[in-house]
Amino acid sequence: MSQQKPDDRPFLKMHGLGNDFILFDARHSPLVLDPATVRALSDRHQGIGCDQLIILRPSDKADLFMEIRNADGSDVAACGNATRCVGQVLMDELGRDEAMIETRAGLLLARRAGDAVTVDMGQPGLSWRAIPLARDLDLDALPIIEGDLLPPSALSMGNPHLLFFNPAPEKWDENTPDVAEIGARLEHHPDFPEGTNVSFVTIIAPDHLKVRTWERGAGLTRACGTAACASLVGAHRRGFAARAARVEMPGGPLQIHWADDDHVLMTGAVRTAFRGTVNLADMAHD
């Protein structure tokens, strides 16, 4: 049996519908991870593997601050599924039915919803500067041409989203476009100076959407909470959906509600996969 080393660090592996995360708790002991170490930890063959790495830090505004790092080592302001996972951890820890989480995108409130967790993701960003875009464009019809696809929409849910809608599922479904090829190419489109998530949304019914997402900094994911929220908001703005819908992703469904107060509520299941310890010195390589 191996002995614990000075650089050993406990972690928690969680996921929301297969969108998976490594969680480190740095509220009581400092933790600084450079991009190379984040990439090594996130590697699914030589590390632990994840879509995003989460560091829990102290906050004087909320129950904690959630630092979010993409698998490529970059920083990100918001992650809906990670917020639900962290909310579950906090509520269990504090013995409460709600918890406030500070992120770079603002304060997010998590609440128990039976066996699931609901997070108030706040108001969508519906101006070109809020997304941000490089220039003032029609957010419901961007001048980005991809074959026969309708012109896409753009908005922010604390991070940028580019959305292609299909209101005629008999013609094609969300799997028909080459999500990986188009997503990888458009992630760094010049109209998105900070990069963007790219989603393909099939309208099954006004209260039922199916979504595939290429996630900025992570690639194809089984689920993306902010993309689910953005898909519902964008679909409603274009007359394709109601203000509440079941949003199905490859990892499972989320219930999204764009409330009358303009806040977007996301509800879904979270799971703990396993706990472990990793030696960060051993992982500090690229």
Core attributes:
286 residues, Diaminopimelate Epimerase, Chain A, domain 1, 17-stranded mixed sheet
Rg to the nearest angstrom?
19 Å
Total number of distinct structural domains? 2
State the low-pLDDT regions, or none.
Answer: none
State which percent range the strand residues make up: 35-45%
Total beta-strand segments: 17
Nearest-integer average pLDDT: 94
CATH class assignment of the largest domain: Alpha Beta
Q: Which homologous superfamily in CATH is the superfamily of the largest domain?
A: Diaminopimelate Epimerase, Chain A, domain 1
Biggest sheet, in brief?
Answer: 17 strands, mixed
Distance between the termini: 28 Å
What overall form do the CA principal axes indicate? globular
- The arrangement of helices and strands along the chain is EEHEEEHEEEEEHEEEHEEEEH
So, CATH architecture of the largest domain? Roll
- Supply the helix-strand structural class: alpha+beta
- Helical amount: 10-25%
- Count of separate DSSP helical elements: 5
